[in-house]
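hey can u check if this looks right to u? its 134 residues, i copy pasted from the old doc so theres a chance i mangled smth
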Amino acid sequence: VIGSSGTGKSCAIAYLVSFLRQPFLWLSGTAARQAHCDSATADNGDSLHETWRRMHTVPLLVIDDISQCKFTEAWGSALFSLMEARTSARLPTLWTCQISLPELRAKIGEQTGDTAQADAISRRLAQHALVITL
């Protein structure tokens, strides 16, 4: 779901999730990035590592306001790998964004300095997705 702040993106996702009745994990884009960063330095038994692992296996993952986090080359690569793993396992991922997909692609490219990675991430986010603009 794409729309400016206050348009009801998160409420729309919450309403949808309430009908799905399956386990889910809901993280902000910033919290998802932090879970990845923390897992890189956490022990395998650490809860920080567990959150990142769960992001790969939970039946439904929601990443809210994905555009709000800072993109680095490492986070971009991790996000792409996460989306690849979830797509391969046929696990749905819902995400919201305050900017359009082309704007998100440009933001990722500017922050990482890697337009190829930005294109790959935005393609993966859009693949098998119904993009709703509010």
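Strands lie at 24-28, 60-64, 93-95.
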